[in-house]
Amino acid sequence: MSQLSSRDVVGDVLTRRISSAFDLTELEQSRIRKLATRYERRAKGTLLAEQGDLGRGSRFLLSGWALRHAYLADGRRQIFGFVLPGDPLDPFGCLGPVTPEGILAVTSVDLVEMSRALTDDRMGSPHDLDRLELLMARQQLGYIRNQIRRLGCQNACQRLAHFILEMHDRLSAIGLVDDGAFALPLTQEMLADALGLSVVHVSRMLKQLREAGLADMSNGWTQVIRRGQLEALCEYDGITDWRTPMGPAQPARHSDMAEQACRRH
Prior knowledge:
Layout: H1 3-19, H2 26-34, E1 36-42, E2 47-49, E3 58-63, E4 66-71, E5 77-83, E6 102-105, E7 109-114, H3 128-153, H4 156-172, E8 181-183, H5 188-195, H6 199-211, E9 215-218, E10 221-224, H7 227-234, H8 256-262
Antiparallel strand pairs: 1-7, 2-6, 3-7, 4-5, 4-6, 8-10, 9-10
């Protein structure tokens, strides 16, 4: 990748990601492109950072998937979240140099390291990168909120439905969804570790969603079929948009089909 094309890719991926929740001026988009300093490609299965590592600067994913996880002493794993194109590897790295969890490449990935060389006087921040990291960190808070909601309040079927919709919307924001279909390169074991379920339970819930005609996940691809009913099923309210205030949550109206899909689970 040439330097010009690399910067174009950085600008496109990062500005699409940020613009899904914040308004950016043309000047801000141009300055983001200039922050990129170093690119690297890492193979599938590479540990991009270990829990407790000192941070390696501000790195962002340009392509591929990664996950953040930690293991317990008995070998069980909790996946805290997934890193998609345009996301920072460590969204809260500005709070301290130590990486709080391991980061693993789910697929082959392209990474970019960003520079703190420019000053953004208009925003009153000492560095453009500080502004970028702040926007990204606020966006990540919405993803954390969703994960807490899934693990704390929802049954197995609702967790899976909610997760599918979040991945759909995050990928749609950067142009990686086609008519409700998107690549989801995750194993059922990964889904289980992310959603606090067993692999058997994940398999059963996927079958229920498919048979109910709500969503289908197979061969590395996921298709959202009946979005409105899927949203009602899990009370999905979208990705946080920081440009407009959020109104009070309204109780969801479950369709009969949606209720049947998750009954007793």
